[in-house]
Design brief:
The chain is mainly α and 422 residues long. It has helices spanning 6-26, 28-39, 43-59, 61-71, 73-91, 97-116, 119-127, 132-148, 151-160, 163-184, 216-228, 231-249, 251-260, 266-291, 296-319, 323-335, 341-386, 390-408.
């Protein structure tokens, strides 16, 4: 019987780590109303705390990439998961709005950053030569799947018991992942006497297994300067801003509330998000496979265009009161939820090389999360002004059309002809 390569074990541990971090980060959508009811906090105030978290987890991405280079992948994963566990524990005793901002804005925002930004790229670069795009697709899919798949369970716990039970569930999952990371995670293949998948023992490693001694903050600053000089960086970062605005920020934060404003029960609305997560797993994994074969620009062009159409379709589905139309939206949108990530990483790797790609992608994720924060806070603001989320979703659909134009301005890209820079 052929022995399973340890790269796949690393992939599985990382996959479930990302799922747990994802559900912690995105569970904000089902906690808005319970927090509003129990603490009498306004929806914009709660949205502001969650927007801070989205902003910080994005802008922490480049620093996480630098910390990984300086302190090691396993150590940073352990520290990040510990942050998440600590933040969830503090949630049980919070009583003031500023505490919500500190816990869900700062602690959970920073704790989720590594898992939801640069970790997929780091694992693919270090542990895979063969199937690298597929590995990115699988891990990227975990990012959204984790954010969506358990939401119906959390919503059921909230409705039948209290939000404390829902927090308790994800707190327990974070502790389990802490133990698994400690026991099984490794920084590099060479630590266990093997090589990256697809690399023979005679070939040199594609990635240095030495920790950097350079100041991580200097690494981050230098990479930003390099990115600012590149047209490709601005086009990718701009399109990723729109990606964050139209996914995590809007759908992840306000979809449940939007559905409930049309009389749809919380559990059913959360189930639609979970449904999206299932189809995202298919769509993003397929996107990773396609990113090894097709011009990544055209993949992004179609992804943004189709996402924009689906966001324009959602108000129609809700106004018609049709569950069937809502299911159609969930399937269509779910396939495209974060399918944009594998081709974005592929283009970043093409432009900046394998060594720098994680850091540069980290900066792109920072822009992604600025977009997410804008939509998270802006959606709550638009709801307060118009007593409806419809304008927020219509504007987001229009931005997606702009994003599809950004990516097509990049240089032609044929993954089969790629020569990866060192």
């Amino acid at each position: 019987m052929k022995k399973i390569h340890y790269s796949w074990i690393i992939l599985v541990i990382t996959f479930f780590s990302i799922i747990v971090a994802g559900i912690i980060r995105s569970s904000s959508g089902v906690f808005i109303e319970p927090f509003e009811t129990e603490f009498s906090w306004s929806r914009p105030a709660i949205s502001f705390a969650f927007a801070i978290g989205l902003f910080l987890y994005g802008f922490s991405g480049p620093f996480m990439a630098a910390f990984v280079e300086r302190f090691g992948l396993k150590n940073v994963m352990l520290a990040s998961m510990l942050f998440l566990s600590f933040g969830l524990g503090l949630t049980f005793v919070m009583t003031q709005e500023w505490q919500l901002v500190l816990i869900w804005g700062v602690i959970i925002g920073i704790g989720s950053s590594l898992f939801l930004t640069v970790l997929s790229t780091q694992i693919a670069n270090r542990w895979f030569v063969k199937h690298r795009g597929l590995a990115v697709g699988i891990l990227t899919a975990a990012t959204a799947t984790g954010q969506l798949i358990l939401l119906p369970v959390l919503a059921t716990l909230i409705e039948n018991y209290s939000w404390h039970h829902a927090i308790g569930l994800i707190f327990g999952l974070s502790i389990i992942m802490l133990i698994l990371i400690f026991l099984f995670m490794k920084d590099f293949p060479e630590q266990i006497g093997t090589t990256a998948l697809g690399l023979t023992e005679q070939e040199p490693p594609t990635f240095s297994n030495n920790k950097s001694i350079e100041n991580p903050f200097k690494i981050v600053w230098d990479s930003l300067i390099e990115g600012c000089k590149s047209k490709a960086f601005w086009l990718l970062a701009g399109s990723f801003f729109i990606c964050g605005l139209s996914t995590t920020g809007l759908i992840g934060t306000h979809f449940v509330g939007y559905c409930m404003s049309f009389g749809i029960p919380m559990v059913l609305a959360a189930s639609m998000l979970s449904f999206m997560g299932i189809f995202d797993l298919v769509g993003t994994t397929l996107s990773g496979w396609l990113s090894d074969k097709i011009d990544n620009r055209w993949l992004l062009f179609f992804y943004y265009g189709l996402r924009g159409l689906s966001l324009l379709f959602l108000p129609v589905a809700l106004n018609n009161g049709s569950i069937t139309l809502l299911i159609i939206f969930s399937v269509f949108y779910g396939l495209d939820w974060i399918a944009t990530v594998p081709p974005t990483i592929g283009l970043a790797r093409r432009e900046f090389g394998i060594k720098k790609s994680a850091m540069m992608y980290g900066w792109m994720v920072a822009f992604h999360q600025v977009g997410a924060a804008v939509a998270a806070y802006g959606g709550g603001l638009i709801y307060n002004i118009f007593d409806s989320y419809t304008w927020a979703f219509m504007l987001s659909g229009a931005f997606c059309a702009l994003g599809s134009l950004f990516v097509i301005l990049l240089k032609k890209h044929n993954p089969k002809d790629d020569v990866i820079k060192p």
